[in-house]
Design goal:
The protein is an alpha/beta fold. It has 14 helices and eight strands. The chain folds into two domains: about 170 residues, no CATH class; about 180 residues, Rossmann fold (3-Layer(aba) Sandwich), CATH 3.40.50. The radius of gyration is 28 Å and the shape is elongated.
């Protein structure tokens, strides 16, 4: 038997309904009347899933120091996120079909998300397991719990289940929910750098980066530099503003590889050895603090700014009142060029990917 329906682009699709489904269903193989109430329910369900889907696809545990256990947990959460994203897509497609009155009658018994979750599980078996078909058949042979739930919808064999999944897929394009393996590798390298305690690598917390961006007022045409990019948090945040010209320096080999995987082209050498060229509109930096090296970094970075360019840096508290000559001279220099200072929350870096109890502030200066 053939069934004709239209997808969301109004292209006619011709589907062959397997005999197994035809005789199992007590309703005719015709599209029911429009059902705006069920359509609205499915749309609401799909929208309510978005936050959970994103949290599963990008689990917070994957940003913690890498361990075998956390890697397994993160992988399982991403797999669940893929399944939820598939169900979300099907809910959206079924909502459109119910609203237009062209929903295949085979789906008349589907009224909630949990019913679709079972079909999403079967979809993953079929597409992600080498033995997917045998695994599905084994589920029916051994009467797993999923089989009992499918029977309530008139799906009594492995072939019936496969046919329903194929029909669900035909309703519209499945979501592209593939994990970017380059990004995954980059995140693993970042976590490894945390685990190895790479000197002076303390990722800038997202809340501080937001404040830096607000102060810098970066425009898409600006050329931006991060002189000590670390794992790329600042660079990625700037690029997400639509800024294509984001440059950076980094000396740790793992972090250089991570930055490259993120799509940047880091200068793989110490920023302090580079000859300044006044070519940047904005410089955003979280420089290294050990041995007061932030002082040299900020002083040098200032000379990479074009006239009118601006620099925002995260600096440790305390040098302003220090009796150490180097720190005192740095504080006087900042005052001379009119740098502005903005305090950060005292515990800001305790929320970083690598805990640090130091208190900091932001400086904003113009050339």
């Amino acid at each position: 038997m053939s069934l004709y329906l239209f997808n969301h682009q109004q292209n006619m699709l011709s589907l062959t309904i397997p005999e197994q489904l035809q005789f199992q269903l007590s309703v005719p193989n015709l599209s029911p009347a429009p059902n705006p109430k069920l359509a609205a329910k499915f749309e609401k369900l799909a929208a309510s899933m978005e936050k959970t889907v994103q949290a599963k696809l990008h689990p917070a545990i994957s940003r913690q120091n890498i361990t075998a256990r956390r890697t397994r947990i993160g992988s399982g959460m991403r797999e669940e996120g893929q399944r939820l994203a598939l169900v979300q897509n099907w809910l959206e497609q079924l909502a459109e079909c119910h609203r237009n009155g062209n929903c295949p009658a085979q789906f008349a018994g589907i009224t909630n998300r949990l019913q679709l979750m079972d079909f999403a599980t079967i979809y993953q078996w079929q597409h992600e397991r080498v033995d997917g078909h045998n695994y599905l058949q084994n589920a029916f042979d051994r009467c797993w719990a999923i089989v009992g739930r499918l029977a309530l919808l008139g799906v009594n064999t492995a072939e019936d289940a496969k046919a329903v999944v194929e029909l669900l897929e035909s309703l519209g394009t499945s979501p592209k929910i593939e994990i970017d393996h380059a990004i995954e590798m980059a995140q693993n390298l970042r976590r490894q750098a945390n685990f190895n305690r790479v000197p002076d690598f303390f990722p800038t917390p997202a809340a501080i980066i937001e404040r830096m961006l607000a102060i810098a007022k970066i425009q898409p045409w600006h050329k931006v530099l991060d002189p000590s990019a670390g794992g790329g948090d600042i660079c990625v945040a700037v690029r997400n503003l639509g800024v294509p010209n984001v440059h950076c320096f980094e000396i740790d080999s793992d972090l250089i590889e991570a930055l490259t995987l993120f799509g940047f082209a880091p200068h793989g050498r110490d920023f302090l050895t580079a000859t300044p060229r006044p070519i940047y509109d904005r410089i955003l930096m979280n420089p290294p603090y050990s041995k007061d090296s932030y002082i040299e970094h900020v002083r040098l970075a200032y000379h990479w700014l074009i006239p009118g360019g601006e620099l925002v840096a995260v600096l440790p508290n305390g040098y302003q009142e220090s009796r150490i000559k180097k720190r005192r001279e740095f504080s006087d220099w900042l005052d001379t060029i009119g740098a502005e200072s903005y305090p950060n929350p005292a515990d800001a870096f305790s929320k970083s990917d690598r805990y640090c109890a130091i208190s900091t502030h932001l400086i904003h200066l113009r050339r």
